[in-house]
Structures are given as structure tokens and as C-alpha cells.
Amino acid sequence: MKKSIGKYIFTQGSGVIVGLISVGSPILIIRKLKPSVLDFTDSLSIIVFAICVLLAFVFIMTLWGKVLVATGLLTKEEAKGYPYSKPWLDK
Questions:
Q1: Long-range pairs for 64-67 at CB < 8 Å and ≥24 separation?
Q2: What pLDDT, in 10s, does the model give residues 52-80?
Q3: What are phi and psi of 86, to 5 degrees?
Q4: pTM of the model as a whole
Q5: What is the CA angle 37-62-1, rounded to 5?
Q6: Which residue, among 14, 1, 5, 21, has the nearest Cα to 83 in the 3D structure?
Q7: 42, 53 in Cβ contact below 8 A?
Q8: pLDDT tens digits, residue range 19-44?
Q9: Counting beta carbons within 10 angstroms of the beta carbon of residue 66, is it exposed (0 to 12), middle (13 to 18) or buried (19 or more)?
Q10: Cα–Cα dist 39/58, whole Å
Q11: What percentage of the chain's residues is helix, strand, coil (to nearest 5)?
Q12: Which helix (H) or strand (E) holds 23?
């Protein structure tokens, strides 16, 4: 049985926006601090860049899930697996 999905539209949509910001922020920071890193002339710079982007994504999405719980938009149970969970569907 499906629950009302009204409150989940915001949380899922904001997850996409926050996810894009979390991927874009390391690019802007690295570009500002050391532009030569983004030249990708060697495999080490590609690996370092990919790790920075991945860590930023995981950290920011985890933090965003906690913000949604703290504001009361999601309960702790609904936030498990955020942003990939679908709490509006009953199992």
C-alpha cells in the first residue's frame, strides 16, 4: 500500500540538488587552489580528484540526511538509506 508522497517530493528533489552541489564543490575548490591538478596529466591526479569528489558526496549527503531528520521532514526510520530509500512504499 502506498503512503502519501507529498513530503517525500521535497526530500528526494533536494537530494538531487545537494548531490550536484557536493560533486561541484570539490571541483571549484580544487580549481581555485591549484588549477594544474585538473589538467589530468597523470593518473595520480585523476585518482586524487575522484577520491575528493566521492568523499565530498558521501559526507554532504549524510549531513543532508541528518538535517532532514533534525528539521522533522523525515523520521530516523525513513532516513535510513537516504537518498536511495523509498519510505513511501510499504514492504
A1: 64/14, 64/15, 64/18
A2: 888 888 888 888 888 988 988 888 877 77
A3: -125, 80
A4: 0.69
A5: 135
A6: 14
A7: no
A8: 888 888 877 887 787 766 566 667 77
A9: middle
A10: 24
A11: 70, 0, 25
A12: helix 6-33
Please give the span between the terminal C-alpha atoms of the chain, in angstroms, as a whole number.
8
In the numeric block, the cell 530516523 is attached to: 76
Cα–Cα distances (Å) from 54 to 24, 49, 61, 75, in that order, read 11, 9, 11, 26
Looking up cell 589530468, which residue turns up? 40
Give residues with Cβ within 8 angstroms of 19, minimum separation 6: 57, 60, 61, 83
Q: How far apart are CA 6 and CA 52, in angstroms?
A: 34
C-alpha cell of 42?
Answer: 597523470
Residue 57 CA to residue 79 CA, distance in Å, equals: 17
